[in-house]
Design a protein that fits this description.
alpha/beta; six-stranded parallel sheet; 8 strands
Length: 183
C-alpha cells in the first residue's frame, strides 16, 4: 500500500471522556500508542492531520460540551496547522465541513483511527467510502467497548470490533494494521 503525500490522518474522538469507567471494558489496550505513532509519522512527513471532536447533544454523554470529558486528551491536542472538525453525530461528515475541506485540499486518501470502532469510526468510514474517498481503517489504532446486541446478548469489545471491521472491509474501506501501514 502506498501512502500518498496528501493522505490525511483522521483521529476520531480522542477526548478525555472516552476513558470514563461507565463506558465499560474495551479492546485494543495499545490503540492510543499506535495512534500516537501514526500521528508522529504524519507530523514528521508533513501530511495533513484532522482531529475530530464530538460535541454531544445529550447532557448524559461523556462528550457533553459543558464538562471536562469533551476536551482532547493531552497527547491528542491539535497543533497549529492541523484541522479541527467538531461534530454532533457519530459521522464526521454529517453536518460538518469535512468533505468540502478535503476536496478543496485535493485529499483523496484517508486513514481513520480512533473510537469507537462500531460507532464514529464505522459511520465516518462508510460515508467516506460512499463519497469516493480511498478509505483505510487502521484496526489496531481503533477500539470499542463491550456491547449488548439487539437481542440483549452481551458481545465482547473484541467481537464488536471484529464485526465492525468486517462490515467495512472491502466495501467501504480497506482494513489494515498500523504495522502494515508504516512498513
Amino acid at each position: 500500500m502506498e501512502i500518498r503525500a496528501r493522505a490525511a490522518l483522521i483521529i476520531i474522538d480522542q477526548q478525555k471522556g472516552i476513558h470514563h469507567p461507565r463506558l465499560g471494558r474495551r479492546n485494543n489496550p495499545h490503540a492510543e500508542e499506535r495512534m500516537l505513532a501514526l500521528l508522529a509519522y504524519w507530523r514528521l512527513t508533513g501530511r495533513p492531520v484532522i482531529h475530530v471532536q464530538h460535541l454531544s447533544r445529550s447532557p448524559d454523554s461523556v462528550f457533553w460540551p459543558e464538562q471536562s470529558g469533551v476536551a482532547f486528551q493531552d497527547a491528542f491536542v491539535p497543533q497549529a496547522g492541523e484541522q479541527l472538525i467538531q461534530k454532533r453525530v457519530p459521522d464526521a461528515f454529517c453536518g460538518t465541513t469535512l468533505e468540502v475541506s478535503l476536496r478543496a485540499a485535493n485529499i483523496g486518501q484517508l486513514m481513520l483511527v480512533g473510537v469507537a470502532t462500531n460507532n464514529s469510526v464505522e459511520s465516518t468510514a462508510r460515508t467516506a467510502g460512499n463519497l469516493g474517498f480511498e478509505t483505510w481503517v487502521i484496526e489496531d489504532a481503533c477500539y470499542t467497548f463491550d456491547k449488548a446486541d439487539f437481542f440483549g446478548q452481551l458481545r465482547s469489545a473484541e467481537a464488536v470490533h471484529a464485526m465492525s471491521l468486517g462490515n467495512l472491509h472491502g466495501e467501504y474501506a480497506t482494513v489494515i494494521s498500523s504495522g502494515q501501514l508504516l512498513a
